[in-house]
Amino acid sequence: MLHVLRRIVLEVGAASNLAEALEIIVRRVKQELTIDVCSVYLREPEANGQRLLLMASEGLNPDSVGTVVMNTGEGLVGLVAERAEPVNLENAPDHPRFKYFPETGEERYHAFLGVPIIHNRRLLGVLVAQQRERRRFDDEHVAFLITLAAQLAGAISHAELIGEVGKRREEIQQDNLQIAGIPGAAGVAVGQGVVAYALADLESVPDRDAESVENEETAFREAVKEVQDELIEIKDRMEDVLPMEERLLFDAYVMMLGSDSLVNGTVDRIRGGSWAPAALRDTVRESTRNFEDMDDPYLRERASDVRDIGRRILMRLQSHVREPEEFPEHTILLGEDVTATQLAEVPPDRLAAVVSSRGTGSSHVAILARAMGIPAVMGVADLPVGRLEGRQIVVDGYRGNLYIQPTAELLEEFKHLQDEEKELAEGLRDLAQEPAITQDGVEVPVYANSGLLADIAPSIQSGADGIGLYRTEVPFMIRERFPGEDEQTQIYREILKSFNPRPVTLRTLDVGGDKALPYFPVTEDNPFLGWRGIRITLDHPEIFLTQLRAMLRASQGLSNLHILFPMISSLGELKGAMQLLQRARDELLDEHYVIPVPKVGVMVEVPSAVYLSEALARRVDFLSVGTNDLVQYLLAVDRNNPRVADLYNGLHPAVLHALDQTAQGAHRAGKTISVCGEMAADPASVILLLGMEIDALSVNVAALARVKWVIRSFSRERCRELLRQCVRMEEPAAIRALLDNALVQAGLGGLVRAGKA
Ligand code: PEP
Ligand code: MG
């Protein structure tokens, strides 16, 4: 059964649209379960989901498909929908809910089994099996259909979103299509879709029209020829290594490349107007599906050979990389899993917004987008990436929505919102230059988070009191190898000099988790619980020492260097890091450099560090709380997983207790504590952080002015009082409501919306 199930899911996955997918399902299920009828009913989005439409059937009258509609309260299919559980009947017509639809011709069938299709707690439709004879379907049949329905639910939900449900066989060219995701970075943008896709990944190739059919065909034929030559060369090279029999595989590859189906199939598609990569993608899909359908296991395996060849040709086709001027003026960068590197490839003055299928507002791409002041929508699980290239798109980073091909009215509405935003930003600009002092006279410096040299000028202009978090991994990520000591020294010196005497906190390399270096891949099952941050640098003292030496050298003649260690979870790790820092300094002193003693800090972003806060603080100069990670580890919610993004909440009472306890630990040790995670940029959270007597905040440049505004609008005493009330509450939503209300009362209602993003 498992084998059959896997095959069906694979075939459905290769279907090019919903109608085709549903036809495969009903045909294959009918065949495998040897039943008389298999049908799929889906909820119609137009009718508020109250109606079910027969979308595909093998066995019922074909004319009834696309026409039979029932209310969810009607008939046996409606009963399955209502109960959201399987209904298994020996003789359906005996059941009081049986309703006869003459168009279907179903009076002949007695046995009935219906299972619900559910995605994210929402009923999408019903999968039905029917048989002439009277019988109860056995457990195996029920289990099979439930498993299949659960596996197909995601694909159906996706099709529903892109408007395929209820529009059988129609081309999807819907205007003003709205798709929901998760807010990633506040703001709105209007622009043109550009798909960022992983190189050599056929499945992520977007649809695109051929600009010149002739050029596409030539490029494709050249790529095929190059791969053929490459394979012949590999075969020759392997002569002494592999026996003849094994080497024949390469001949088979070369033959496949010359085959009609792969080459002509692709060329036909190119001549039909597609660009070469998408034509190749579809031809490979078709060909692999044919192989996968075969019963002979040897031939089934050939599917992976076709895919391999497809990837090789694609790689050749992709040797042409997009030039900066090929990005439209207002680029909306879209992708399955947009990476920081892809973001950095777009010239900043052309990047209008980012949209990613994976990730959440706490992912690093979203953080980077906030730092660049552009909106981002994350976790759009059903993003039809392949169809968005070149389309006009509105990105609403406040609510986490996208609008594809918006209507003129909607465009007008968003333009208006953009103007309002600009006004608010301008209103705050002057305020940003004022010191951040509470109404009862406590100064709470607001620093900027940064990671790019390009951020420095905006950070200075924005009125930042210094840099509270410089993510050194960013310059590492946009290079093709580890930067050397001199190269790093230069980068760090430029930042230190620009801000001197204001403090600059350079965090040591924090890769792993969702931050990969293209030239240092780390593949793990649970990367956030794995080899990350300080764990990597302690295991690679050569990399760590190079970086520490560069930081220290950069600080010659300056007095503002602060060094921060990420992901510390034990005193032992801190000791190891301090020893290496000492060693780097000793080496430099031996080399006759004059190096001031830097201030050293520890990031509190792992729960164990909360409990060790006093002990850690005693050994360093300051603590800095990384709430982005701390929240994910405290609540066991992956910061990148859109499925659980609703559970990720900095105002969770457990988080508030942990922060309060950390602040007390630092102060007992007589040291300062700052917060550099995204919570520090959320106006409601800022009130509580002030109440906890956090000494400084570090935020993305775009949020700097509003955070200062909050600080200047409250007294510390009032914040303490609000904190006292909040820690007695149990629900994050109630805490948020109380704080939003406090913001409104203080005249900061305009920030309430911004805080949610
Ligand atoms: C954090 O975890 O809060 C933090 C500031 O670090 P990063 O977001 O880079 O992991
Ligand atoms: Mg972190």
From TrEMBL:
What's the domain of life for this entry?
A: Bacteria
Q: Where does this one sit in the cell? A: Cytoplasm
Catalyzed reactions per annotation: L-histidyl-[protein] + phosphoenolpyruvate = N(pros)-phospho-L-histidyl-[protein] + pyruvate
* SMART domains in the record: GAF (SM00065)
Extract the GO molecular function terms from the UniProt entry: kinase activity; metal ion binding; phosphoenolpyruvate-protein phosphotransferase activity
Q: Could you tell me the keywords of this UniProt record?
A: Cytoplasm, Kinase, Magnesium, Metal-binding, Phosphotransferase system, Pyruvate, Sugar transport, Transferase, Transport
Q: Which GO terms describe its cellular component?
A: cytoplasm
Its cofactor is:
Mg(2+)
EC supergroup of this enzyme:
transferase
Please list every transmembrane segment annotated in the UniProt record, as residue ranges.
none
Gene Ontology biological-process annotations:
phosphoenolpyruvate-dependent sugar phosphotransferase system
Q: Domain GAF, which positions?
A: 17-166
Q: What is its EC number?
A: 2.7.3.9
Q: What PANTHER family does the annotation carry?
A: PHOSPHOENOLPYRUVATE-DEPENDENT PHOSPHOTRANSFERASE SYSTEM (PTHR46244:SF1), PHOSPHOENOLPYRUVATE-PROTEIN PHOSPHOTRANSFERASE (PTHR46244)
The record's comment on protein family reads: Belongs to the PEP-utilizing enzyme family.
What name goes with this protein? Answer: phosphoenolpyruvate--protein phosphotransferase
